[in-house]
Structures are given as structure tokens and as C-alpha cells.
């Protein structure tokens, strides 16, 4: 396979493949927080996030969610459909944490009475500012119809993942999704892993996600391994 580096992000590198409709995503061990202000390595993270994401994509597909994941040629690589990425970060929240807790002065762990869906404009230079549907339509980042599809899929994904994770004694606090266009459809893209989700143990409320890195809580790799183990029963 002839592959050319297309884009190197903070946690993943994207390559072309022989098929113009497909890309290869390589999951790195690099970790950043605060939009690159803090940098580090989480040994084995690439393998864990690749496998955890593949697990969630497969699970969501069984419930009718269309996504970009095709297959996993190696432990750190994923073949995906080449999406025309919509420049939005779509955040779903069930419990106050992180920036929501800060912005609204809420105690972390406060349960929301209904899920919250927020949009952020994907732009590192601007630190991904929060935007609403009016900004998105005025800037032509997505159409009304695309936003309707994104909201429907986002809320459904939240409900499927929350219910599933509950059976593994994990609370889904919040998470971030990205979507893109593919042959006239809007598909789920990016990854679903402890890098972009907050997972808390339902009994102890222990954090099993990237907040362990962001907040220097230690045992970062162990938390990622624990998520893969609870999902698949496998160690790595
Ligand atoms: O920081 P904040 O509380 O807004 O994050 C909400 C959720 O979105 C968290 O699960 C976080 O991991 C994820 N997120 C992300 N990428 C960003 C911002 C947030 O994956 N750039």
C-alpha cells in the first residue's frame, strides 16, 4: 500500500491509502492538554484508543449509527472512510464536569436533568470557541439539515453508550464527537476513547479517562487499560 502523510494531529496521524475514498489513521502515544499547553506520553495509549474506538464503532453500528470505521490492519492503525470533516466539536454532557462545571459554577458530579449538546468551532488558533446554531449557519459550517442529523445521532449515541457503559459499572459523564460528509450522508468520524470521553467508575467515582493526565492524578495508562478490559474482557 502506498501511503502519504496527509495530516499530523496531536494524538493521531492520517495517511492516504491506495483507495481515494479511504484513509489510514495511526494512533500515537502522544498526549496533550489545554490545546497543546501540556504535552506528554501515555505509553500504549495509541493501541488502547484504537481498540476502544473500534469497539465503540462496532457497537454503535449494530444500533444503526453510521460511522467512518472500516477495519483495523494493526494494533495502532484504523482504515476509515475519507470524510469531508464538518469543523465542529459536538459535546454531549450528562453530568457537570470540566468546562461546564467551571462556566456555570457547578460542583463536578452534578447530574443534569436532561443531556446537554454543545457545539464548538474546531480551530486550535482560537482554542475551539463555543458556538451556537446561528453561528454555524451564518458561517456555512453546516446546513440546518446536517445539524438536525448531528443532533439526532449525538443524542442517540449518548443514550446507547450510557446504557451500555452502565452494565460495565461506568458512568458516561461527557464526551466529544466529530462528524463528516461522505457521499451525501453525515457520518460519525474521529475516535471514541478515554481521550475524548469522561468515564467515571459508577461505585467509586474514580476517573478512568484523560483527566488523570490533565490533572496529574497518576495511573493514566492503568485507567485506559481498565476501560478496554471492562469493554472487551481483554487486557490489551
Ligand atoms: O473540557 P470540556 O469539559 O469542555 O470537555 C468536554 C468533553 O469533551 C470531555 O469528555 C473532553 O474529553 C472532550 N473534549 C475533547 N476535545 C476537546 C475538548 C473537549 O475531546 N478539544
From TrEMBL:
Name of the protein: Phosphoribosylaminoimidazole-succinocarboxamide synthase
Classification lineage: Bacteria, Bacillati, Bacillota, Negativicutes, Selenomonadales
Protein's gene: purC
GO BP field: 'de novo' IMP biosynthetic process; cobalamin biosynthetic process
Cited Pfam families: SAICAR_synt
Associated pathway: Purine metabolism; IMP biosynthesis via de novo pathway; 5-amino-1-(5-phospho-D-ribosyl)imidazole-4-carboxamide from 5-amino-1-(5-phospho-D-ribosyl)imidazole-4-carboxylate: step 1/2
EC number: 6.3.2.6
Catalyses which reaction(s): 5-amino-1-(5-phospho-D-ribosyl)imidazole-4-carboxylate + L-aspartate + ATP = (2S)-2-[5-amino-1-(5-phospho-beta-D-ribosyl)imidazole-4-carboxamido]succinate + ADP + phosphate + 2 H(+)
PANTHER family: MULTIFUNCTIONAL PROTEIN ADE2, SI:DKEY-6E2.2
PROSITE patterns given in the database record: SAICAR_SYNTHETASE_1, SAICAR_SYNTHETASE_2
Domain of life: Bacteria
Entries under CDD domains matching the protein: SAICAR_synt_PurC
Keywords, sorted A to Z: ATP-binding, Ligase, Nucleotide-binding, Purine biosynthesis
NCBIfam families reported in the protein's UniProt record: purC
Listed GO MF terms: ATP binding; phosphoribosylaminoimidazolesuccinocarboxamide synthase activity
Record-stated family: Belongs to the SAICAR synthetase family.
Native source species: Pectinatus cerevisiiphilus
Annotated SAICAR synthetase/ADE2 N-terminal domain residues: 5-230
HAMAP family, per the entry: SAICAR_synth
Amino acid at each position: 500500500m502506498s501511503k502519504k502523510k496527509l495530516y499530523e494531529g496531536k494524538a493521531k496521524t492520517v495517511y492516504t491509502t491506495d483507495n481515494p475514498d479511504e484513509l489510514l489513521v495511526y494512533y500515537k502515544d502522544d498526549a496533550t492538554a489545554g490545546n497543546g499547553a501540556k504535552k506528554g506520553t501515555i505509553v500504549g495509549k495509541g493501541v488502547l484508543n484504537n481498540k476502544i474506538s473500534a469497539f465503540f464503532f462496532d457497537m454503535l453500528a449494530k444500533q444503526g449509527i453510521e460511522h467512518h470505521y472500516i477495519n483495523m490492519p494493526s494494533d495502532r492503525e484504523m482504515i476509515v472512510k475519507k470524510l469531508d470533516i464538518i469543523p465542529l466539536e459536538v459535546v454531549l454532557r450528562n453530568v457537570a464536569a470540566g468546562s461546564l462545571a467551571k462556566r456555570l459554577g457547578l460542583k463536578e458530579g452534578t447530574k443534569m436533568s436532561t443531556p446537554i449538546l454543545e457545539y464548538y468551532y474546531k480551530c486550535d488558533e482560537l482554542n475551539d470557541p463555543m458556538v451556537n446554531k446561528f453561528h454555524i449557519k451564518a458561517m456555512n459550517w453546516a446546513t440546518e439539515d446536517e445539524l438536525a442529523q448531528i443532533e439526532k445521532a449525538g443524542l442517540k449515541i449518548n443514550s446507547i453508550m450510557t446504557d451500555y457503559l452502565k452494565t460495565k459499572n461506568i458512568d458516561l459523564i461527557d464526551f466529544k464527537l466529530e462528524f463528516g460528509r461522505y457521499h451525501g450522508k453525515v457520518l460519525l468520524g474521529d475516535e471514541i476513547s478515554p481521550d475524548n470521553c469522561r468515564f467515571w467508575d459508577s461505585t467509586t467515582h474514580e476517573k478512568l479517562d484523560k483527566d488523570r493526565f490533565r490533572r496529574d492524578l497518576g495511573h493514566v495508562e492503568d485507567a485506559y487499560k481498565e476501560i478496554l478490559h471492562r469493554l472487551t474482557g481483554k487486557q490489551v
